[in-house]
Write a structure and sequence with these properties.
The structure holds two protein chains of two kinds. Chain A is mainly β. Chain A has four helices and 48 strands. By secondary structure, chain B is mostly beta strands. The termini of chain B are far apart. The chains are: A mainly beta, B mainly beta.
């Protein structure tokens, strides 16, 4: 195979220089059929097709040389909002060899993305390739062999866009470019909201998806300042640290997928708890992370920022993927994507099972996600999405450092399975999420309408024990008892229904395009949450901490304007108004009685029905209230210099509180954040590579921060805090590589004491690298392709309570893959260096009984959750194409 | 370039928490317990009780199962309902020792104490050999042992006390509202103001003289072995002196004193 190719190159070299190069005739006959809404009675929307930034010519395949055949291949390329080719479909085949050559080339092209009303949008374009064989060599003259045949650099352009003329003429005759009226741009996907400056990250996963990611949350690390921990197991939401915030499991970061909210209002474990495990990582096409409350579209929970996942599937056809490896891990994933549809149309389902990397860490889950993206007439598109997810898992919980140092328990062990274990109910839980959503986007002249509806049904059970047997002290009115254990059994059921929509209008004023958007967001939540304590010996509930039934409402309106007085000045911003309503029935409001009956004391009941000398009193307490918040947000973006833009942003955000804090007619005690930042962004190119670099200074102030209470098992309100810091991020994308690097330094202080906020890391560094290339061999007549993905994370020592610091964390995750035709084999190693590290560290009091007959320990001690040891996983993926 | 690096480095240091703290510290420390300073090792302790009765103690041993310090301010009556104090515990010594109350030299606890440098306002002394909530002390060992002589009506009589805290102190029946056994074993709250540190030691001094406050030994039944305090609250011999001696064990305000000392020896 290799010999054949070399001889063909040699023969080319022997001929006229232009003609001897592998003559690949590239034709751009781009047919754009601009979609026009209401063509008869409305002006067309301002749609600008994508323009080629960089391209790679196709190489005439050696296998076709002998036949010296001419051929035409027509590809449909999907160009995403970042200008990368996210999908390639063969519209007209020229045979397997020519098709492959065209696809290999097209995938390396980069574009200036299509725009609709001055906003980048995904688009689909047709690109024909004409292949002509090189002229026959007059003589064979041996010359040094190059690894790859040279091809003439050409720059292609879509009509209507600036383009350089071809540097050299094609070696073969090519048809003239198609007339503009033959152009067609299928605009798919959804509009990306206009940028808010340097802290607005539109992150395309692209080749960086090759870096090992255990779940969708890990893609957040592509944005600076994010650290993830998890003390609750594989079915428990990741704890997110962002720019010095301990955003817990989503309470301080607004998370959504395709615009559908993930945060769970009223979740008893944490108001705003957000579990992203229902998202299949392979379906994450991009995500937008805004670090700060700077966009009027951001609503409740956008205190540290927000992140929205966009789903899509590049790989068309039917793909089956099996992963097996360390810790008894197995995963089967099936993905289906019709070739004729956009990347937004797909279906996928997975079944996952693992024994976990230590004691009591097993997990099982199943997930199914499907989405259809279609068109309604010529001026509207719609999406329908459905997702189902269910899991059962166990959690190792925390380990006391003194027990570990004394050898009483191993690093990856769990108290639940230790020799001195007393609990019959192991920590862990169950979770499920079923959701359907639909959205529509249509354009009428200069106005764009969007509308989305969603319904989510969510269940969660969580069993945790952070303190062992510490809290169940003998109360005077209780039956005499020993410590029964502090195990928390928390159950939440939540139904969420809601809608969001917007209308934007754009017009040219002062010679510049100005726009304004009005939008709304509405959600209702019906939530029941109960937290009980389980007796260690029997697993029976012995006390009820909380039992709430809540109806919660959140309706927000916003106006967002983009004013451009000069071509290099943009002022974006507006106002958001939210009303949050709470109707809460505390079913266990009375825990003790002031004047118990001496003859009939309440004994051990948790939720008491009488108090004050036996006067009738039901155990519940309804409470309802509402509050409104006005949230101004603004960004000034200056771009007087080529490639550089400077931005300054201001914004105010809120987090609603746990329903358990609601008191009748007392205004909802919002946690309010005010954020400021200034940044500079460079966006340009180095050769054929795209470079984006940002530097950001920021400060945020929260009036009521959340502090984790290990005794309550959830967050409680704390004092005000201020964070000041710097973030830097670089993304360099080339034909064969993709590199993302970010560093964040932040200092988080309490306003009253000026002491550091515990647990939030002050130094976070992350690097994601991917390299993809053709390999120098062929299998089954197909070119082999290889890739490497490397993820590096460093988290500096985190401040812990009582003046202590945690250990630093450094991990490396590596993957390597080889793909041939429709088959890909990959090997991934997580924690490649085998570092024994502590993912989470905490200082607080607990008593797990590991010290035998000694008296209980009641003072704070270091605890930790173990990070995963080295794991090696092999994946075989087969794409059955076609469909 | 150098100035840029200097600026950036300085900014990074000033921004990050490398120059900050969350306050306080977690420390391990030595701990010990002893009799009062003014006793002489190897000698008996002579004193006169508040009732004017002369006493000569020849043996006084108290078993301290553990001691704890808490941040919460002791408020009269407020802590009476539970065995565990409200607030945050800031220091603990969880290995027990028998303390010779006639020896001013501290007896060192076998294990190190552990705590945070926050100031403690209340202390607890746990008088137990085993689980503080266990209805029966499986060890059967005494908590307090006293021997000595007293002079009543001009005559010198020996006396002795061996007090245990086990089922003999358990309220009849396990009913709600009954004093839990842990309250019998825990002396709490003991007012104090001490902060543990990395350097130095926590010292508990116990004054046996104050155990005889309001104890009228003449009310005890004189046996051939002298006056013997009863350890059985249900017995007929369990009279006021026995009750008061036992009650004085729980007198947090005077019998027990916490202090921070540079050294234990």
């Amino acid at each position: 195979m290799r010999i054949e190719r070399q001889s063909s190159i040699i023969s080319c070299r022997g001929h006229d220089r232009a003609g001897r190069r592998a003559s690949v005739a590239l034709l751009f006959a781009l047919t754009l059929a601009a979609e026009r809404a209401h063509a008869q009675d409305a002006p067309p929307p301002t749609v600008t097709p994508p323009a080629v930034l960089t391209h790679v010519d196709a190489v005439y395949p050696e296998s076709a040389l002998s036949a010296r055949e001419h051929g035409d291949v027509v590809l449909a390329l999907t160009v995403d909002v970042d200008g990368h080719v996210s999908k390639v479909d063969v519209m007209q085949s020229g045979g397997a060899a020519l098709d492959e050559a065209a696809i290999v080339a097209a995938r390396q092209w980069t574009f200036t993305p299509a725009e609709r009303d001055a906003r980048p949008v995904a688009s689909r374009i047709r690109v024909p390739f004409h292949f002509a064989p090189p002229a026959p060599p007059p003589e064979l003259v041996p010359e040094p062999v190059k690894a790859e045949p040279e091809v003439s650099p050409q720059t292609a352009a879509l009509p209507g866009r600036r383009a350089k003329p071809p540097a050299t003429a094609p070696a073969v005759a090519t048809p003239a470019p198609a007339a503009p009226d033959e152009e067609e741009v299928f605009v798919t996907g959804r509009q990306t909201p206009p940028s808010r400056g340097a802290s607005d990250f539109n992150l395309r996963t692209g080749e960086l998806a090759r870096v090992p990611h255990a779940n969708a949350t890990e893609f957040l690390k592509l944005a600076p300042g994010i650290m993830l921990t998890n003390e609750g197991g594989e079915g428990h939401a990741e704890q997110v640290f962002l720019r010095g915030f301990d955003a817990r499991e989503g309470q301080d970061i607004e998370l959504s997928v395709g615009g559908v909210p993930i945060n769970e209002s009223g979740n008893l474990h944490g108001n705003g708890y957000a579990d992203t495990h229902f998202i299949i990582p392979e379906l994450v096409e991009s995500l937008r992370v805004v670090e700060g409350p700077f966009d009027p579209r951001q609503g409740n929970y956008a205190v540290a920022g927000s992140a929205n996942y966009e789903l899509g599937l590049d790989k068309r056809g039917l793909t089956a993927k099996y992963t097996g490896g360390s810790f008894g891990t197995q995963r089967l994933l099936l993905m289906f994507a019709p070739k004729e549809e956009s990347t937004g149309t797909f279906a996928a389902a997975e079944v996952y099972s693992t024994d976990g990397y230590g004691q009591n860490r097993d997990a099982r889950r199943g997930t199914a996600m499907a989405q259809y993206e279609g068109r309604l007439g010529k001026n509207a598109s719609y999406r329908v999405n459905a997702a189902a997810y269910s899991t059962h898992y166990h959690s190792a919980g925390v380990i006391r450092d003194d027990d570990y140092r004394a050898g009483r328990i191993g690093f990856y062990d769990s108290y639940a399975l230790s020799s001195f274990a007393s609990d019959v109910t192991k920590p862990g839980g169950d979770a499920s999420r079923y959701a359907v959503s639909g959205d529509i986007e249509s354009r009428h002249g200069d106005t764009t309408f969007t509308q989305q509806v969603f319904v989510i049904d969510r269940d969660m059970r969580l069993i945790e024990n952070f303190t062992g047997s510490l809290l169940d002290v003998q109360e005077p009115l209780q039956s005499l008892h020993l410590q029964r254990g502090d195990t928390i059994d928390l159950a939440v059921h939540e139904t969420t229904y809601g809608a969001r929509g917007s209308s934007s209008f754009a017009a040219k004023v002062l010679g510049q395009k100005q726009s304004i958007e009005f939008g709304y967001f509405a959600r209702g939540d019906r939530v029941t949450g109960e937290q009980q304590r389980l007796e260690a010996a029997t697993g029976h509930p012995y006390a009820t901490d909380t039992d709430l039934a809540s109806q919660l409402g959140d309706i927000g309106l916003y106006a967002d304007a983009s004013v451009k007085p000069l071509s290099w000045i943009t002022l974006r911003g507006g106002l958001r108004a939210d009303i949050l309503t709470f109707n809460v029935n505390d079913l266990c409001a009375v825990h003790d009685v002031a004047h118990p009956s001496t003859t009939n004391p309440p004994v051990d009941q948790s939720c008491l029905s009488q108090q004050d000398f036996g006067r009738p009193r039901e155990p519940n307490q309804p409470a309802s209230t509402a509050s409104t918040a006005l949230l101004p947000r603004a960004s000034l973006i200056l771009g007087p210099y080529r490639h550089f833009s400077f931005s300054a942003s201001y914004g105010k955000g809120i987090r609603s509180v746990d329903p358990s804090y609601i008191t009748q007619d007392v205004r909802t005690p919002f946690a309010s954040v005010v954020a400021y930042e200034g940044g500079v962004t460079y966006a340009g190119g180095i050769g054929n590579s795209q470079l984006t670099a940002r530097s950001i200074l920021f400060q945020t102030h929260v009036d009521k921060d959340l502090i984790f209470s290990e005794t309550a098992g959830r967050n409680v309100l704390g004092a005000g805090t201020t964070r000041t810091g710097w973030s830097g991020a670089v993304r360099l994308t080339g034909v064969h590589f993709d590199e993302s690097f970010n560093l964040t330094l932040v200092k988080s202080l309490y306003d009253d004491t000026h002491l550091l906020v515990a647990y939030a890391p002050d130094v976070v560094l992350r690097s994601d690298s991917a390299y993809v290339t053709d390999l120098p061999f062929r299998l089954f007549q197909s070119r082999a392709q290889g890739s490497i993905g490397l993820g590096l994370s460093y988290v500096g020592p985190r401040p812990l309570p009582y003046g202590e610091r945690s250990d630093s964390i450094f991990t490396a995750d590596l993957s390597a893959s080889v793909s041939v035709s429709h088959v890909e084999l990959s090997i991934a190693s997580t924690n490649l260096l085998g570092t024994q590290y502590r993912l989470g560290e905490y200082n607080y009091a607990s008593n797990f009984g590991a010290r035998g007959a000694q008296q209980p320990t009641l003072v704070p001690e270091r605890h930790f959750t173990a990070g995963a040891p080295r794991g090696v996983f092999a994946t075989l993926a087969v794409n059955f194409g076609g469909v | 370039m150098r100035s840029f690096i200097g600026f950036f480095g300085g900014f990074a240091l000033s921004v990050t928490g490398c120059v900050g703290t969350t306050g306080g510290d977690i420390v391990d420390f030595e701990a010990g317990a002893a009799g009062p300073k003014d006793v002489v090792r190897g000698e008996s302790l002579s004193f006169t009780t508040d009732r004017g009765v002369p006493v000569e103690l020849t043996r006084a041993t108290l078993h301290v199962g553990a001691m704890y310090l808490d941040q919460a301010l002791p408020v009269s009556g407020a802590q009476s309902s539970t065995c565990i104090l409200p607030g945050t515990y800031v220091a603990e010594v969880t290995d027990g020792i028998d303390v010779d109350l006639l020896d001013p030299t501290p007896t060192k606890f076998p294990g190190e104490g552990h705590g945070t440098t926050s100031v403690a306002r209340a202390g607890q002394v746990w008088l137990t050999h085993d689980d503080v909530n266990a209805g029966i002390d499986p060890s059967g060992k005494p908590i307090l042992s006293l021997e000595g002589t007293t002079t009543i009506a001009g005559e010198e009589h020996p006396f002795s006390a061996v007090l245990t805290i086990s089922s003999n102190r358990q309220a009849a029946g396990a009913v709600a509202g009954a004093n839990p056994i842990c309250k019998e074993r825990i002396v709490s709250p003991i007012a104090t103001e001490v902060s543990v540190q990395e350097e130095g030691a926590l010292l508990l001094r116990i004054d046996p003289r104050l155990l005889f406050t309001n104890v009228d030994m003449s009310a005890l039944t004189l046996t051939p072995d002298g006056y013997v305090f009863s350890d059985d609250p249900t017995a007929a011999t369990y009279t006021q002196p026995s009750l008061n001696l036992y009650s004085n064990l729980h007198s947090g305000g005077s019998v027990y004193t916490f202090s921070w000392t540079p050294r234990l020896d």
